[in-house]
Specification:
Transferase(Phosphotransferase), domain 1, globular, 15 strands, 341 residues, 31% helix, four-stranded antiparallel sheet
Length: 341
Amino acid sequence: MADESLIGRQLNNFKIESLIGQGGMATVYVGRDVKLNRPVAIKVIDARFRDNPAYAQRFVREAQSVSGWRHENIVQIYYADDEDGLYYFVMEYIDGEDLSKKMAAVAKQGEFLAHSEALRIGRSVANALDYAHQKGVIHRDVKPANILISKEGQVVLSDFGLALIVAEGTLGEVFGSSHYIAPEQARRSADAVPQSDLYSLGVVLYQMLTGVVPFDDPSPTAVALQHLTQPPPPPRDVNPGLNQEIESVLLKALSKSPTERYQSGAALIGALEAALQNASPSHSAAPATVNRDDNLIGLQLDEYRLEELLGKGGMAAVYQGVDARLNRRVALKVIDTPYRA
């Protein structure tokens, strides 16, 4: 639960004003730099990590290291410190939305993100990752929620505070979101390499161009296992508007072995740009709607009746249903047609 008791508190020169949201390890607030009179974002480490001084102090050291960076596609960190047991860092405030919200708005209209926009966003993230990797830092949590788009259209990658400094190693935790995590990182956080971030970017590109993530399941562990063991569904099975070249780029980006992926963000985006140039202009904004097997609604499977489609992942669709025997609501996951054989 987010700690709203911090609202109104001042940490050094930064006053906490309102809550933005909470992630797995920290809470983010809108604040103000009272000396420079500018808005900032303030991330405060959750209480459960404050009891581990070694971890919390290292978090601050990582933030302090990134604070010296200057790159147009990376959220700038202004300050990092601890005060009365509160570990926090202060970042540039981006007035806009994250990529997950942008994709949700496009999906609500029954469309895919325009190819040109997907390429622009992908290039910005790739540039940010190449810069970080040259500095010896692996992000480890590249996902749409960490890709911010300002009202002016600038794309920036955030949350480098959870990055791995290669020279220092790792404490051993598996950081990252299961839908976007690279196979080697899912095994062990210490195995993360720069190409792990590029795998995550590959998942984001796959999602922007098909409307779905390649692997999905209510269980994060099950999703991580799919990254480890299952080939991703061919993108053209999900969005027939893509050409073979685009599909090949996405599948190479999602190779299980880091050595078989693109070795830099520039190489990945260069290949994608070339593939998109060969695509028909009519496919830039995908007009097709993914087949979600709506004809299954009303079907009775033993005592379970399918009533409403809830969503679709890379390999299956999830429905709301009713257990006719116990008269209770249930969720039913049905494997997509291409995977039933």
